[in-house]
């Protein structure tokens, strides 16, 4: 076959490789290694990590100084905007007077003016009965600290995962699933489904190591995965990636070898208010922070505005399938299966 002949001659050090053609049903099955006990053990250990009561609620880019952004975290209505100096403000989303939605208020001189009767909140005087909540903008994502919802010991700053040190390109995708945060985490902690469930994005997937013991130190609690990211047609980029959980609702995939070394995909699962029928809902807020040493990457970075929709589209496509997995997991659990 022509592709096979080309594969023989393709320089193995080039970042883009030719993906050998394999029929989907002819891949090596992974169900033997994908032990439910190993996945469940990793999910349980993740749930014990501290969050300091911090929740990711939006992409930094989506919070502006011109229009307030409404958000919902675990049924708590929030509003967020930026002061004139660009700093983030987050607080209750209902006006303390008669409850108007502050997401529909006007931003004026860095404060919010309620549309119903003109109460001004966020000026820092604290005389309105509206109190700002602890918040944090890490440059890619916005976090809010909700102590009652989290129920843990609060911390001053959120556990922001380590990101690429040099110049990077970031994109944030947001989707909603009918499940709990734990179902999103469990999906990400099953790396074995990659090439089977997402053959359009991954091939030649091999889980090199997985934490098989029940008690594992946090530093060793990782999955190492060899995988080729498909670029379309016969081309792909082989990398070694690790999956870790730095918090109870966060899974980080980091490229530890190959093109884009140090790049991360952070998946944050944030609880929302339940649907009208009581079904839980969870937001998947996924940040891709891509880095590369290559000179062309600088160009790609400046073309970020063009590339960002493509990065979001790729994440969105994967998550449509992954949400079906997570929602199914929730349904089975709620039926006691
Ligand atoms: S409801 Fe906001 S000022 Fe009256
Ligand atoms: Fe997936």
TrEMBL record:
Domain Rieske: 54-144
Domain of life, source organism: Bacteria
InterPro entries assigned: Cholesterol_7-desaturase (IPR050584), DUF5914 (IPR045612), Rieske_2Fe-2S (IPR017941), Rieske_2Fe-2S_sf (IPR036922)
Keywords in alphabetical order: 2Fe-2S, Iron, Iron-sulfur, Metal-binding, Oxidoreductase
Pfam families per UniProt: DUF5914, Rieske
Protein's recorded name: DUF5914 domain-containing protein
Organism of this sequence: Kribbella deserti
């Amino acid at each position: 076959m022509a592709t096979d002949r080309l594969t023989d001659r393709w320089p193995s050090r080039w970042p883009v490789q030719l993906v050998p053609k394999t029929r989907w049903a002819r891949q090596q099955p992974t169900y033997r290694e994908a032990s439910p006990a190993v996945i469940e053990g990793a999910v349980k250990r993740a749930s014990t990590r501290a969050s300091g009561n911090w929740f990711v609620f939006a992409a930094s880019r989506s919070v502006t100084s011109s229009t307030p952004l409404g958000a919902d975290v675990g049924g708590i209505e929030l509003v967020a905007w930026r002061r004139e100096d660009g700093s983030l403000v987050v607080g209750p989303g209902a006006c303390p007077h008669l409850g108007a939605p502050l997401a529909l208020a006007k931003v004026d001189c860095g404060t919010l003016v309620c549309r119903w009767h003109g109460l001004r909140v966020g000026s820092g005087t604290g005389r309105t009965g509206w109190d700002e909540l602890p918040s944090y903008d890490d440059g890619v994502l916005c976090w809010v600290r909700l102590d009652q919802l989290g129920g843990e010991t609060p911390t001053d700053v959120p556990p922001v995962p380590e990101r690429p040190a040099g110049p990077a390109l970031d994109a944030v995708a947001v989707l909603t699933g009918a499940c709990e945060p734990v179902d999103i985490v469990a999906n990400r902690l099953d790396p074995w489904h990659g090439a089977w469930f997402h053959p359009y994005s991954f091939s030649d997937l091999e889980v090199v190591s997985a934490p098989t013991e029940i008690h594992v130190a946090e530093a060793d609690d990782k999955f190492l995965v060899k995988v080729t990211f498909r670029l379309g047609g016969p081309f792909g980029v082989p990398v070694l990636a690790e999956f870790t959980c730095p918090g109870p609702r966060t899974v980080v995939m980091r490229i530890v070898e190959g093109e884009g070394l140090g790049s991360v995909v952070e998946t944050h699962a944030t609880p929302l208010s339940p649907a009208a029928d009581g079904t839980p809902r969870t937001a998947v807020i996924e940040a891709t922070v891509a880095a590369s040493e290559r000179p062309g990457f600088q160009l790609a970075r400046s073309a970020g505005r063009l590339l960002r929709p493509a990065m979001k589209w790729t994440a969105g496509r994967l998550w449509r399938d992954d949400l079906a997995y997570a929602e199914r997991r929730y349904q089975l659990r709620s039926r006691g299966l």
